[in-house]
Structure formats: structure tokens, C-alpha cells
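sorry for the late reply, my laptop died twice this morning and i had to redo everyting from scratch. anyway the thing you sent over, i finally got around to it. pasting the sequence first so we're on the same page, its 283 residues, then the predicted structure underneath. double check i copied it right bc i was rushing
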Amino acid sequence: MRANVTEYDLIAPATLTAALATLAEGRHTLIAGGTELMVALSAGRLPKKPLLSINHFSELRFMDVTPETITIGSGTTFTDLRRHPMIASDFPLLSQAASWTGSIANQNRGTLGGNIVNASPAADSPPALLAYDAELTLISTAGRRTMPYRDFYLGYKKTALRPDELLHSITLKRIFHGYISYTRKVGTRNAQAISKVAIAALARMKNGFIEDIRIGAASLREFPIRLTAAETILTGKPINAAAIAAARAALFAETRPIDDIRSTSNYRSIVAANLLEEFLQSV
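ok and here's the structure:
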């Protein structure tokens, strides 16, 4: 049943400090771009709590580039990501993911931070961020803390974010020159489709052997994951039929896709293994 928008109050504090103080009260739902919350509102699934807007804070919408890293504010939109030359050159998997996220209107409003904390197993940006081994900075009135993105998800729609915290920024190391990159999203349509399965992968070769490999995936578990078992099996190996077969077996063992209205578990497993093999063949 569709909710009545007039039943929801919204406040927009003048400063980020004030917003964090309000968040610490524990009575509000954060809203930035709102692309996911409006879906929940329309479906009548949004909790009846006042909304706390953080969309207007420039402190959360930035991209800070240094020779070693790029730090992306959580309020950065997908359009910002698509248009930034450093993202395109150093982190093409993330640039591609940004172009897949909904319509142009969604990309103009939707934020990278929202895509992360919404914790959808099928979200577009997590596979790339996992492959790039992103680090998250979380802030609250108590201060700030950092954590590896790979440790952020605890279960379906559950994260390590405390009730009084918000995601401030995402940091990526600029160490992936020389890596071969690959990403594929399989959906019902070529655009504006939730993924049935998606993979983002990086590999660095040395003398015909895999020196380093990173594989992020969506829609294969209850949250986005790194395929660490497949990575372990492949590291230090040449790419041949035996290695590919072992990697496919590892993927089947470490994933637990579900049956839902978009696809079946069996389809997701087989397609994901095929995408992994396609990546390895391209390497």
C-alpha cells in the first residue's frame, strides 16, 4: 500500500555537525539522493520516522585526488563519477558501474554512499569497490573510524554502520595501473535493470602466471562479496583449463544465490562461472 508522504517530517540541518547531533538522537532516517527511499515510500515500506537530509552538504560531495589515493565523498553522485577523468583512467570498473546505475535522472540524484549503505545484494557499485579493495570512513559525534569495505556487510541488509554513524567517504588506492580489468552485468535489459548477476575483476600477470587477482560479485550471496576462494586458487597459477575448472568449482562452493522473481539460483551460479571463465580467457 502506497504511503502518504505528508506523514513524514523532514529536517535539513545547516551544518554537518548539527546533522550528526540529530542522528545521534536515534529517531531519524537519513536521506541523501533518496532514490531507494522513495521506492520504499511508494511501496509503503519506509518506517514512520522523520527524515534527516544530508544531501546539501558539500563536505560529503567531493573527490580528493592525491598521487597515492582518491577519496570520494559519500554524497558524490553517479553522474559525478561518470564524468570524473581520474575515475575513468584509474578506476574504470567503478566508472562503468556508475553508468549502469538506473536512468540518467537516477545517476543525477543517487549517491555512491547510498548505494553502499542500502546494502542491496544486487547493487551496481559494490563489485568494483570490492575489487579495488576500498576503505570506508565512518563519522559520528564520537569521531571517525575507518574499515575495509570488504568487512562492511554483516548479513542481508545488515552493515557495520552504527545507528549514530554515517558514511563519510570511500578511499581507493591508485595502484592498479598494469592490471587487466573486466566487468559484466547480466540483467533483463541493457539499461535500468537490477542485476541478475554481476562481476568486476582485476588481474596482474607476471611471466605467464597470475600474480594478483581480485574478483567482486553481486547477486551471488545475501550481500556483495569478494570471491576469495577463487582468488586463492588462481593466484600464482598459469591460466589453463585446469585453473579455470578449479576456479569455477571454487565459485560454486563459496556462493549461495537465491531464486527470486528476476532469476534462479542455478542460472546465477552458471552465468557467474561463465563470466569468470570469460574474464580468465581474456587475460
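The radius of gyration is 19 Å.
thats about all i looked at so far, will dig more tmrw
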